Amino acid sequence: MVQNTNHIANCVPIGRHDGHVLELDLDKLLAGRLLIQGSSGAGKSATLRRIVEEAFEYMTTVIVDPEGEFANLAEHIGAARIVGSTLTCEGMTSAALKAREHRIALHVDLSDLDPEERIIKAAAFFAGLMSAPAEVWPNTMLVCIDEGHLLAPHVAGSARDAETRRTGVAALTDLCSRGRKRGLATIVATQRLAKLSASVTSELLNFLVGLNVFDRDVQRAADFLGFGPREAERLRSLAPGEFYALGPALVVTATLAKIDPTITDHVGATPKLVGCADHSAEDARRLLNLECMETIAAEPRGRSTALRGTRALDNFLLDPTAGLAVTTLQALARIAPNATTCTDICAHTGQQAEQVHAALDTLSALGAIETTHRETVRIARLSARLRQKNSNVDLVALA
Question: How far apart are CA 320 and CA 279, in angstroms?
Answer without folding.
Answer: 61
